[in-house]
Amino acid sequence: MKKKYLLNLTLAILVPFFFLSCEEDVDPPQPDFSATVSTSTGDISITFSDLSSNSPDLLSWTFEGGTPSTSTERNPTVTYSSYGTFDVTLVAKNEGGENEIVKYDYINVVQFNNPLFTDMDVTVDGATKTMSPGYSVQFAKIDNTSVSYTAETSGETSGGTTIGEELYWSGTVDFSSWNLILTSDYIFFYVTNSCGYSLTSFYVNYGTSNQTVDYITIPSDGIKYRTGYYYAFYGMEVYAVCSAGYVSWYVYPTSDNNQSKSLTISSKSIIEQSEEAMDYSSVESEMLYPAIGTGNKMVVDPNAKDLAPSNKK
How many helices and strands in the chain, by DSSP H and E? Predict the structure, then answer.
């Protein structure tokens, strides 16, 4: 009777130990993730996808420069409103423990600023964003050190016809803030007409090898209209035609970048000439857009770097 009791006691001790020793150890997760950039026109939106192994029970994200700055979702979406390079941290936990991964400078945001007088299109990786005068646009790259871009602008009629010079920029830049500037080689014109006749042809650098002509309608309504950018030469002549004659200005550009000049026309400005000497064109002229203000979101960034256009005279 005594031996039987001893055997039962031994089994009671060994059986639980046997089953416990058969349980497999749980390996801690190995965290990893990827990210995808949205092509929206607003703030940068990035969706992160968890790729961690060993089935983590808890994920803890930290997003430098992002909103939200932390998350416990498996695949969170984060917005970035500032340019620069940002780290992303992921901690993955389960019963076996936890591990952390930090991807340094993983999110990279570049900002382009438009200090010009016309809208500008900027393209990165096939995605194009338009920024109005005085505004900026941003693009993001994942785990990269630089970004290639193109940008272009010109004056435009309300029908979409290009006015003046077509200007473009291209290159590779780091993830900073960049002003897409124009040098003193170019000048932008505003025209206000109160002469009683609509202007129908607009010549710049009249009578020279650099002459351009735009068949645009500038009505006699006292409203300031924007034309476009043109090559700037000291003492350049601007010449506009209406049914009663023509008006001419001599313009003296300065050494300032992104310069503009306002031209005004009154009834006294019109120079009459004979019907035979009138410079008419069979091309139908198109209306201009009135001049626009830059609103209250002017680009003011003391740290921005300047990028001159790629096309030259």
Answer: 1, 23
The residue type found at 307 is L
CA distance 225 to 58: 60
Of 228, 234, 226, nearest to 185 by C-alpha is: 234
DSSP letter for 56, please: -
Read off the tokens for 235. Answer: 């003492």
CB 131 within 8 A of CB 119: yes
Architecture of 33-108 per CATH?
A: Sandwich (2.60)
Contact 227, 202 (CB under 8 A): yes
User: Exposed e or buried b for every residue in 41-50, given b needs 16+ CB within 10 A?
Assistant: eeebebebeb
The CATH code that applies to domain 186-287 is 2.60.40
Cα separation, 58 vs 75, in Å, equals 12
Q: 162-182, pLDDT tens digit by residue?
A: 999 999 999 999 999 999 999
Q: Which residues contact 65 (CB under 8 A, 6 or more apart)?
A: 80, 82, 84, 86, 107, 109
> pTM of this prediction?
0.84
Cα-flanking dihedrals φ and ψ of residue 28, to 5°? -70, 155
